[in-house]
Each structure stands twice: as C-alpha cells, then as structure tokens.
Amino acid sequence: MWTLLLIGAILLVVAVKAFHWLQARATIPSLHTRYVLITGCDSGFGRRLAQRLDNMGCHVFAACLTSSSVTELSGESSERLKALQMDVTKDEDIERALREVEAALPENKGLWAIVNNAGIFGASGVAEMMTRKDFLAPLEVNLLGMTQVTRMFLPLVRRERGRVVNTTSVVGRFALSPAPYVASKFAAAGYTDMLRRELLRHPISVHSIQPGAFAATNLFDTENIRKSVTRVFQATPPHVQQVYGHDFVEKCE
Fold first, then answer.
1. Is 70 exceeded by the pLDDT of residue 216?
2. Which residues does UniProt assign to the signal peptide (predicted)?
3. What is the domain class of 30-220 according to CATH?
C-alpha cells in the first residue's frame, strides 16, 4: 500500500513539473498582429501589463484616467503602445476612446482582447458607517465601468474571435472588508460569470483574474486607507461612534 502511495505521489510531482515546463514554453503566435485594450493603466497591474505586452510585440491601447499618465506612459513605450485618456465612469469618455481605437486599427481588424483592469478601493471602515455615496463610488468603477467598456468594445472583440479579461478580486468570492469594495467585486465576479455563459455561442471567451492584496499596487496604500477610515468615522453619527469606541481608528491600524 505504501509503495503504491509513494509511486502515486512521484507521478503527481512529475505531472505537475511537466505541466509547468510546458506552460513556461507555450507561445502565442503572431503577437505583432494582435491589438489589446487595457483599462486602468495609470499604475499597478494595468501599467505593467501594457508595458509587458508592448515589449512582447503586441499592439496596446492603454487607457489611463489622467493626462499625465498618458504622457508618461507614451514616453516610456514603443510606437506600438497608444496611451489614451478614459474615465470608465463616463460613457462619453468610453465612446471617445472607442472612436480613437477604431481610427487606429487597420481595416477590418478588431481587438484580440479587452482587459478590464480599472478599479478603486473606495471608503474603508465598517458597513454600518458607510453611506450610499461610499457604496456607489467603487460600484461605478469596479462594476459599471467594466460593463460599459465591455458593451461598447465587444463588437471589435467579436471581429477577432477574441476574449474579455476582467480583473475582479479574491474578495469577490470570499467576503472580507470593506463592504463597498467587496460588494463591487462580488458584483463584478457575478457579471463575469454571467457574461461567460451568455457568450458561449459566440466566438468570444470570458476570463476572470482574482488577485489578492498586492502591496506593489496603489490600491491598498496604507496611508490612504487610514485617512479613509478617519473620514468615515468622523462623518458617522455620535451614537454609532460610541458603539465602536472613540479609539476605533487606532484599532484599525
């Protein structure tokens, strides 16, 4: 019995090693003919992915929130990367970006992929202290920004039989804190699962990336979180503050 278990364990290790070996050597053909749109390229995952794909020879439309990020990213990249300004909470911005992308694409060419990466953390604190505005802010970016970018650019993805890649979060599956961010990520995960089913009969695949807490991104900046907790607590009615204690902010650090 122990011999069989040992053999099984060895075979499993060999299979895993072989899988990783093959995966590391997998290549995507004709990357120089692929066009990808990425949102949230001001910093973090979006910026790094845009630069990585650019270095690999892919054509990238890197959507940034600020004009300074557009200028900075353009100066750091090759001519294959086109940085453009887009606020995913504004339909007019998305429509303008769509026109820019369509004008830049070769004739009869579409998008190989959309990467919906734009996201914000929003207010920090406990759910009882959160206002409607606190919940709406991350929903506008993390969910509705994703849905509207996908809706408007999907015809270009269909043209290439491409894919939609949505950056959600591990907290979109396992509820942690804070409530507005978690709720927006659960919603984004649900939207992604639904979209995948709806597009089963179309030549479009839908994927979800669920990162944990990466300190290298600006999303989980501890100083910003501390300021947010302080603001939320100070705006909370005194009788609720009393329940949680006036040292609530210090406890959260």
1. no
2. 1-18
3. alpha beta
